[in-house]
Structures are given as C-alpha cells and as structure tokens.
C-alpha cells in the first residue's frame, strides 16, 4: 500500500465536497473492490472518503409500494431484514448469496452498483426490478444507469445515497457461480410486476443486460418451460477461461427457469 488521506464525514454533502475539491479522491464503502485494486497499485487515490458512517445512507424502509435501501447498507443486512424478506424476498435471497460471509458483512449495495462489476449480483436485481438509483443530486432509472464494463452514468464526484425498488408480484434470482470467487459466471434475475415482466442477466456480457427474447416469452407465459424454450444468441457474450460464449448462452434460459422456481417458492 502507500500513504493516502482518510476522511469519515457524517453527512453526504460533506463527502461529496471532498471529491469535488479533489479529483484524485475516491469514495470508500465496503472496500471489497477498491482496496484490492489499491494493493495491486491499479488505483492510487490520494484520499479515501469513508461513507459508511453517514446515518442517512444506512436505512431500510418499506413504504408506498417501494423498498428503499440506503447505499451504505451491507449485503448481510439486506439478506436478514424482515422488511425486505416480506416485501421483496427475491432481493433478500440474492443478497444472502453474494460472496461469502465476510464479504456480505462488509460489502454495500451502493459500492456494488458504483463499481458495476460485469459479474456482480446486485445490478441484475436493480435492472430487473426497474429500480431507481438515488444520488446526492438526481434520480437515475435502472435502464439508464449501467453503461458498460465498470461504467455507469455517475459523475466522478456523484454519490449514490439510496436505491428504490418497486414491489414485484414475483421475483427470483439464480446464478451459476465461480466456485473460487463466488461471482456469477452467469446470473439471471426475473421479475413480474405491474409493468410486466423484466429479466436481467449478469456475468454473461460486458455489463448487465435485459434479454428481450426471454422477456417476450415470459410475458406470454411466466413459466419454467417458457424460459427454457428460449434460445439466446452467443454473439455478444463473454468467452474466457471459465466458459465459452455458447455455454453462457445455454445457461441463461436454464437459470431463468430456476429463478422462476425460486420466485414461485417465496
């Protein structure tokens, strides 16, 4: 490691002010992605601004058909929240299967979304549930938030403060995980709500995406058989040492079917 300034503001506007004044500073939440890159010298911020003590970013509320989760809430708390389990059990289930116990106790929903790892689980939930990412200055629809590999619509000093999830009639997530990292080789979140069926896939491409073929099929028949009957093109999917593009294409409808099974079980 190397020397850097460490700050722990108690208010969101104070945290933003530091990054606005210092372009080399970075927000620090759970540190599950940032600290390893710093150890490898792939990132060398001059200052870390710890946002985990900002009280307004640590709340979970359910009101008016919306589950609002503060950006500094860790995965373990989402997974164990009685309110989330009751209102959106598929989201609590997803949070409980991120990484391992140590990661779930430290990692935060805001940090996961800001990093936008191509194989992260939370982006699939945010996109499939048509959530809204709330920042210190605006509200960003899920369809507009994820732009590409590790790329989001956030400005350099913009801070995620909360995520708002509309309630769903049924929602579930399933992933085929890398046994070493527990990241999703492919992960699929399915959701059926008042606006229809939405499906989001993570781990299979450069960024989370919505497979229109699956959404069309499940809009007609929200069933395991309908999901598994869809053929996904491998043309734009990842191919690496872990799996070919064709294998990932094969996994998507299979996992969509399993996600429906999980959704129906809640």
TrEMBL record:
One of its GO terms (molecular function) is oxidoreductase activity. InterPro entries: CO_DH_flav_C (IPR005107), CO_DH_flav_C_dom_sf (IPR036683), Diverse_Substr_Oxidored (IPR051312), FAD-bd_PCMH (IPR016166), FAD-bd_PCMH-like_sf (IPR036318), FAD-bd_PCMH_sub1 (IPR016167), FAD-bd_PCMH_sub2 (IPR016169), Mopterin_DH_FAD-bd (IPR002346). Residues 1-170 form the FAD-binding PCMH-type domain. The keyword Flavoprotein applies. It comes from the Bacteria. Keywords: FAD, Flavoprotein, Oxidoreductase. It holds the Pfam family FAD_binding_5. The keyword Cell division does not apply. This is Carbon monoxide dehydrogenase.
